[in-house]
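2024-03-11 09:14:02 DEBUG pipeline.ingest accepted 1 chain
2024-03-11 09:14:02 DEBUG pipeline.ingest length=124
2024-03-11 09:14:03 DEBUG pipeline.predict start
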Amino acid sequence: MSDETSVKAPETGSGSGAPSGQSGESRPSGGYQGNRPAGGPRPAGGGPGGRGKFFRRKKVCKFCTEKIDAIPYRDVRLLQGFVAERGKIVPRRLTGVCTTHQRRLTRAIKQARNIALLPFAARH
């Protein structure tokens, strides 16, 4: 009895009842791996077209290029381009406006909202 104790030898597989074809491999569970090896290089081209890396143009500030210094809060047509459908102010990473003009733009939008030129929220 002393020779046959209930000590089991460690299994070489994952230990979670994985199929025998995946023994020795440690992949994170869940998620689609696709047809490339885990941790391998991504296919070049960035998409189905395969025309190389995607090139995004650098966004330049509309107000700096047109040399607009003061942003008027009464110009609703200008301000509506920087307000989303829901009424939120669009962030500068999406519009490309520089930091100083984004602050002035935010102040102008808030002034226009307070005197009811722009809506605070979208109509539903």
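2024-03-11 09:14:41 DEBUG pipeline.report The CA atoms of residues 68 and 105 lie 11 Å apart.
2024-03-11 09:14:41 DEBUG pipeline.predict end
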